[in-house]
Amino acid sequence: MGLLVDGVWRDAWYDTKSSGGRFVRKESQYRDGLDGRFQAEPGRYHIYAGFACPWAHRVLIMRALKGLEGLISVSMVNAFMGEKGWTFLPGEGVVPDSVNGAQYLYQVYLAGDPTYTGRVTIPILWDKFEKRIVNNESSEIIRILNSAFDHVGALPGDYYPQELRAEIDAINARVYETLNNGVYRSGFATTQEAYEEAVHPLFETLDWLEEHLTGREWLVGDRLTEADIRLFTTLVRFDAIYHGHFKCNLRRIADYPNLSRLTWKLASHERVAPTIDLRHAKAHYYRSHTSVNPTGIVPVGPAEPLGPGHSLTGIQPLPA
Ligand SMILES: N[C@@H](CCC(=O)N[C@@H](CS)C(=O)NCC(=O)O)C(=O)O
């Protein structure tokens, strides 16, 4: 775990000292869209992702739902993120970097800008023509994938429809703050106060979502939208990872019937299922976050991380 400073890798854990033990997420730096100099073209773009990361997972799901596998290639990082950050070293679920030939993800950031300063995160949308990062903010990459490739062969489907945007944005805002990022704010807190400040609102949001989903199939409108996708990538990891590793343990998702139903509905979706590898994700969190779990031991349970009777075995690997 570390970051680049003027193009030089520095091994460092998140600084929580200056913020009273609170984990404060840094803004992503590459924020271009596919317009102007970047045009949507088959074969031009590459995604750097990984099975562990909930932010990268959003992007893998959108790529799959829009049927973009043949138009946008992908590389997948190793589960273990050590002192040199994410790597493409051989391991389960790794898809090597066919574009930049990087062994370490920081080399991809340097290939785009040899003087980059900042965190080295997945997901990344990379332009093979201009040889640079277009965007490294998942909430924006999923919107790009949702519509930019529609005229060059993407599958139909709009997961951010105009008429539902206000409602989607409102749900996203609460879910991002208290849940998607809330699990990290709970788990990476280094004071009791900072932890409790995160974990209580997190469960208030889960309670609220459970109620909101009564009599509804999806969060917004009567259809699958990006709001469901953004919620899902946290829910699917919750009982196996966040409940134990990040101490989000007032309740499990299995204790919420409506949230469990939504989680399973997406997890078993034929296009979404191949984007999930919970064993890999568990190994990442428990082995890489040595300040949270110094022994690196990966717990064996829960036996059924997606609720009674639901198994994810038999899922096919992600097409490269
Ligand atoms: N805001 C970013 C966050 C991405 C992010 O934090 N990814 C994590 C993996 S789950 C990462 O690569 N962390 C490495 C680091 O912070 O050094 C997004 O949504 O794309």
Automatic annotation (TrEMBL):
The active site is at 53 (nucleophile), 184 (proton donor/acceptor). One of its GO terms (molecular function) is glutathione transferase activity. Keywords: Plasmid, Transferase. Pfam families: GST_C_2, GST_N_2. InterPro entries: Glutathione-S-Trfase_C-like, Glutathione-S-Trfase_C_sf, Glutathione_S-Trfase, Glutathione_S-Trfase_N, GST_Omega-like_C, GST_Omega/GSH, Thioredoxin-like_sf. Residues 161-285 form the GST C-terminal domain. This is Glutathione S-transferase family protein. It comes from Sphingopyxis lindanitolerans. The lineage of its organism: Bacteria, Pseudomonadati, Pseudomonadota, Alphaproteobacteria, Sphingomonadales.
